[in-house]
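Structure ticket #2291
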Amino acid sequence: MSPPWPAVSSCGQVRCSERPAVRLAPCRRVVTDSDSCRHGWTALGSAARSRARPVECDGRTGTTTHGVDMAVFGVDYAWGRPGVAALKRAGVKFACRYLSHDKTGKNLTPAEAESLSDAGIWLVVVWETTAKRPLDGRAAGVADARDAAAQATTCGMPDGRPIYFAADWDASPGQQDEINAYLDGAASVLGRRRVGLYAGHGPLKRAFDAGKITFGWQTYAWSEGRWDDRAHLQQYSNDHQINGVTVDYDRAVRSDYGQWRVGVSPEGDDMPDYVSVGTGGERQQLPPGAWTTVGWAKEYSDREHQHYDKGGPSLLTGSARYSLSVATTVTGVPAGTLIQARAIEVQIEDTGKFAVGPVQDFVSVGDTTNLVYGLAADTVGAGHRVRFQLLQHGDAPATVTQGTAKVLFWK
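Resolution: structure written out below.
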């Protein structure tokens, strides 16, 4: 089958008609190193490019700058309306639309929500009145969340979907307390799991670090080229035209980024997300008589960033329902000696405190023993992470020579 991109030029590069000049890995198009083509793929450095793979060029899948193996192309716009036909032709999969006190046509309307939904375009909503509204603190957050929820419901947003709140300026660290108080106010109305923030890198990172938001929409403005990998949406390029209307380009880098259609939530609960990690060839000591937590140096798949410590022991961050399968190879345990395995759920704030999952017993068969631990179904609570431990009952240290762990989870 012919590839869905243009023919390769004599220099070995393919050029996107919209921009000059640097190699773009996932769809083999070319963009500037600070911008992106309309498909949403950012120019990658040589290290990232070496990890990339050819994928579809319709805005549905790809490799972003921080290695996410999924991206969805979308736009945001205010007063203009490109129309669903033009959005579909441009490959738009979702539209971020405003809620506010505006009376001049900026806001999402029920009719527009119906039209976009009927066309199969997902919706995301953001509340913005004035750029620095979050500086008004908690009371403002309470009032805005109430009004935002009422407007979103009128437009057909299902119960439980999040609302983003905009901090549309280069907010300083000294202003974060007011922003966080505003987000606390919004959370008192919506619940923390429904609160998102639109902002540059600094305030978004600080809000995530403080546990004030569940959803993040980062703009490249004021971000100095940095992306927080906890963000669900990235606004990566501004001031484009679709059907004569000015739009900004966005990409979703999580499967659930707050999207909805009229009366319809994404069906993510029906299909699990997936984590696959390994020891990466690193040998780990297994002292006798003590539970030892296994570390995972190699990530094979972690689209939702659950392997939080990137090379450390955590496999999944709660809250979630999950199943776990771990295969390890242990050497140096005498034949007939008991080896035990278990999952634990450690507190994020104090990893010395944890809940213990089912313990499974194995017997060493000699110098090399292969173990497979399975946990068919369990639940990890919010503020906890899942880890895996081994205990060998020999008299001398042993070694974990290799291992893999796979997690299916539903959030």
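Closing remark: Confidence is low (pLDDT under 50) at residues 1-69.
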